[in-house]
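HUMAN: Ready with one sample?

ASSISTANT:
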Amino acid sequence: MAPNDSTTTGTTAGGSVGRRKAARYIVPVAVAGVAAATIGLVPALASSGDPELPKIGAQELIEKIAASDTQRLSGTMRISTDLGIPSLGGLAGAFTGGEGGPGGRGGASADPKDRMTELVSGTHTLRVAADGPDKQRLSILDDAAEYSLIRNGDQVWAYDSKSDTAYHATADGAGKDAGHRSGKRSVPEGVPTTPKALAEQVLEAAGPTTSVTVDGTAQVAGRDAYRLVVKPKQSGSTIGSATIAVDAENGVPLKFTLLPSSGGKAIVDAGFTKVDFAKPDASLFTFTPAKGTEVTEAQEDEDGGKAGRSDGTKGLEGLEGLVPGAGQLGAGDQGVKGARVIGEGWSAVAEFKVPGAAGLPGKASEEAPAEARQFLDALGDKVSGKFGSGTVFKTRVVNTLMTDDGRVYVGAVTKEKLVEVANGAS
C-alpha cells in the first residue's frame, strides 16, 4: 500500500498533545538511572507483507490511539535495547557490595526496582497479560527461569523463580515490616514496557517541532496495522524517528521502533510476536508463595512514608501500556527542581546547578569501585569552551554535560549541542 502523505504537528482528540510535556530530565550522576528511565522496550519484528487498508490521516490515527479502550489482552513480546552504554551486569554488585550485599539469598532480589533495570540492554522475551485496570502481569523469561511482576487489585507481587524469592506490596502503602525502613521506593518509576506506553510518551511530546505522518501499513503478530512515523523537525536531537505500528482494528500500538539521528541500529525496538485480545485466564493474576520461598515486604521511609511512600504502585507505569490508566497510580513529577529549560521541543536542554558538586565527575570516578570507574570512564568525554571545562556523559539517547564548577546540562541532544548550549548560557 502506498504511504499516506497526510501530516500533523501532534494534535489529538481533546486538544494538542503538545500541551503536555513528556520530556523529563534526570541527573545522570549514576548514568544507569538515565538508562532505567528510558527502558522497557522490544525488537523489530519481521513484516509478513503490507496489507491493503483504507487510507487514514495522521491526525485520525493519533485520535484512534487515544480513543482505544482495549481492557484485555495477553501475548508475548520481545525486547531489544541498545542505549550505547556498557553492560550493567555486575555493576549493581559494585555499588551494593556484591554477593554479600542486601537483597536476599546470595544477593538475589525479587524487588522490581532491582530487576526491571535488566531491560536497559540486550534482548529479552516478555509475557504480558491484562484484564481491566486492576489486573496486570508482566514476566521476563530467561533460559531456565522466570521473573514475574503481578498486580491484582491492591496487591502487588513479584517472584523470581531462579532464587525462589518474592516481593510483596500493597497499594495503600502499608509496608508490613516497619522495623526495617530503608527509604527505598518499592518499584522503579517511569519504566515503560509495552509499545503502547512508549507510543504515548512520544505522542505526548509531539508539537510544532514534530512531524507526524502515516507511512504505509504492516503486519505485526498477525494483525493488520498502520505505520505512524514521528520525526523531529529540529537539528541537534539524538532522536531520528519513532515508528509506531497501530492495530487497524482497535488502535492498540503493537510495535515501537526508535531510531537514532546518527543512523545505525535501532535504540529501541518493541513489539508483540503474539497477541490475543480475549479475556486472560484469571489464574494469571493470582500468586501465593510456596513454602520455603523467601518473601520481602515493601518498606516505608524513615519518616513514616510521607515523603516517597513505598506503596507498590510506583513503577506500574510499566504496566500502563497493557490497559489505560494503570500507570496513573503513583505517577509523579520526575522533573529536576530548579531546572531552567533552554530551547524547546526535541532540542530542549535542562540546565541546573548541583549543590556542592564542583569537580563531581572527577571526584566520583576517583572514589568509585573499579567496575564503576570503568563504567564512568567509558561514558565520559572531556570537553571545554566558554563555559570552562567539564565531562559529557553519553548514551545514544540522553547526554549530560557536567561542568567542573557543578553546572549540569542534560537533554536528548548531541554532545555538540550540549556544548553549544553551555557556551551560550555562560
